[in-house]
Amino acid sequence: MATPNGLITVDSVTQTFPLDGGGQYVALRSINLDIAPGEFVTLIGHSGCGKSTLLNLLAGLSQASEGGILMHGRQVTEPGPERMVVFQNYSLLPWLTVRQNIALAVNTVYPQMAPRERHEIVERNIQLVSLTAAAHRLPAELSGGMKQRVAIARALSIRPKLLLLDEPFGALDALTRGNLQQQLMQICQESSLTAVMVTHDVDEALLLSDRVVCLTNGPAARIGQILSVPLPRPRERLSVMNHPDYYQLRSQLIHFLQEQRRLKQLAATSR
Amino acid sequence: MPQVLPYLLCIGAFLIVWQLLSAALGAARLPGPIQVITDTWDPYIKDPFYDEGGTSKGLGWQILISLQRVAVGYGLAAVVGIALGGLLGLNRFAGKGFDPVVQVLRTVPPLAWFPISLMVFQDANMSAIFVIFITAIWPIIINTAVGIREIPQDYTNVARVLRLSKRAYIRSIVVPATVPYVFTGLRIAVGLAWLAIVAAEMLKADGGIGYFIWDAYNAGGDASSSQIILAILYVGLVGLALDRLVAFVGRKVSKGAA
After folding, report:
1. Strand pairing partners for A13?
2. pLDDT per residue over B46-71, tens digit each?
3. CA quadruple B241, B246, B250, B253: dihedral positive or negative?
C-alpha cells in the first residue's frame, strides 16, 4: 500500500510485548504513516506512549507484531545503515576516540572505498559538528553535548536515507540544545535528509519538523493527530517564534498533550 | 608528610600490640617484631639469594620457585579460562548447560584437588601447577562469560544498525567491552593462585616459599618461629604485588571501557 512518493510507509502496525505473568501488553495499535523524502517528522507524546517503540520499528531493531514498515515499497526486516539511529544515550563505544567511533561506521559501511576517501569522510563529518579539536579524545572526556554531536556525525557520515533520532537533545542543557537543534536543522536542510525524531519538547518539535505526529497514551497508543508545520524554511529559532502562526500551532500541540495527560490521570484514578 | 602519618601511627600500633602479645606469651612461642628481625637477619634478610644446594636456599629463591609454578599454572588458567569463558558467554546453550558444573567446581577448596592430581600426574611439581590452574580458572571463566553477556544493548544496537560482521563485532565490540570483566577475573584468580601454591607446597614439594614455611616448622629450631613469620610477611608482600600488577595491566589495557 505504499504511496508512490513515500520513502517510508508505516502500514497498520501493531506492536505487542509478552508480559511476565502471561498475557500481552499492546504498545502500539494500528499505526499508519507515510513519510516523504526530505521530510522531517517528529513523534511526540507522553512518556510510555510508544514513541521509542515506533522508532525501533522504523530502524528495524524490532519487528512489528502485525502490519509492517516499508521503505521504497520493500519491507524492513532488519536494521541497516540506510536507516541510521542517533540513540538516546549516544551509544558511543567508550574505548574508541571520537575519530575512531566515526571511522568504525564509515569503514563498515563503505568497505570497498579507498582508505583515503574514507578518512576524508571521517574528517569532514568531524568538522561538520565542530569537533576537530576533540577528535582524538575518548567519549568519557567529552561533555554530553559533544557526545551527542559525535553520535550525529557518526550517523551523518554514512549518508543514511532515513535518520532516526531518539530524544537526541533530552539530556542537554538549554543552551547546548538550542545550538545543536540549529546545527541539525542546517545539516538536514543542506543534504535534504529525511528524518524522524522522537521528542517530548513542543518547541523543539515545531522548530525542526514539517509534520508533528501526536501519539495518544499507551497502552495501545494510536496516532491522535498529525499537525503540519507550514513555517517557512530556512528557519531560525527567533524568527520561528515570532511567526504569526507559531502560537496557534504551539497551543494545538499543548492542548493535545494536556488532554492526554488528563486522560492518563483519569485512567489512573479510576483504577 | 601528613600523608604518611596514618600509616606510621597505625602500623606502629600494630607492631606494639604484637610486641606486647609476644611478651605475654613468651618469646619462644611468639617472637616479637624486633626478635624476628634479629633471628632472621643472617642469612635470610641479609642474603635472600644464598644457595647451599638442595632445598637450602634463600627466601628470594624460594619465592622465585613458587612464582615460577604460579606463572605456569596461572598462565594456563588465563588462556584456557578466557577461551572457555568466551565460549560460554557467546553460546547461550553451552553457557546455560555448563553453569551448574562451573558453580559446583568453583567452590572446591584448592587443597581438595591435590590428592586427585597427585594420583593423576604422579608428580608433586605437576600436581602443584595443576592445583593452581584448577583454582584460578573459575573466576576467569565466570567473569569472561558474564562480561560478554553484560555487553550493553546500546553497543549491540550500534553493531546491528551498522551491520558489523561477526568477526568485526567480536573484535570491535565484544573484546573491548569484556576486557574489564576479564581482568576482574584475572585479579581474583591471581590471589587464589598464590594462596593455592603456598598451601600445596606445604603439603608436598621440593622448594618454594610454602615448603620453606613447613620445613622451618618441622626443623623446630630456636629461630623457626621467626623464620616462619618472616616468610609469611614475604608471602603477603608478593601476593599484594601480584594483585597490583594485574590491576595495573588491566587499567592499561581497558582504556576508556568500564
Report:
1. A31
2. 888 888 877 778 889 999 999 999 99
3. positive
Report the residue of chain B nearest A92, measured CA to CA: B155
pLDDT over 70 at A3, yes or no? no
C-alpha cell at B128: 602443584
Task: Report yes or no: B253 at the A interface, CB cutoff 8 Å.
Answer: no
**Mean pLDDT (whole number) for A20-32:** 89
B-proximal residues of A, 130-159, CB under 8 Å: 138-140, 158
Flag if A96 and B257 touch (Cβ within 8 Å): no
pLDDT for A22 beyond 90: no
Task: Name the residue among B161, B254, B255 with its Cβ closest to that of A85.
Answer: B161
Q: What does the DSSP 8-state code read for residue B2?
A: G
d(C-alpha B76, C-alpha B78), whole Å: 5
- List, for residues B204-228, the tens digit of each pLDDT value: 778 889 999 999 998 888 888 999 9
What residue spans of A35-173 are helical by DSSP H?
51-59, 98-109, 115-128, 144-157
Predicted confidence band of residue A271 (pLDDT cuts 50, 70, 90): low
- Under 8 Å between Cβ of A205 and A169: no
Measured CA distances, B225 to B16, B18, B221, B222, B237 (Å):
18, 14, 8, 8, 18
Residue B28 CB contacts under 8 Å (≥ 6 apart), including other chains: B225
Task: For residue B26, give the 3-state DSSP assignment.
Answer: coil
Phi-psi region of A162 (alpha: psi -120 to 50; beta: other; left: phi over 0): beta
How do residues B132-190 score in pLDDT, each as one tens digit?
999 999 999 999 999 999 999 999 999 999 999 999 999 999 999 999 999 999 999 99
- The per-residue pLDDT for B29 is 86
Residue B54's contacts (CB-CB under 8 Å, 6 or more residues apart) are none
Which of B157, B172, B254 comes nearest A87 by C-beta? B157
Length of chain A: 271
Interface of A with B in 43-102 (CB under 8 A): 59, 61, 78-81, 83-85, 87, 89, 91, 93-96
Task: Specify the DSSP class assigned to residue B4.
Answer: G
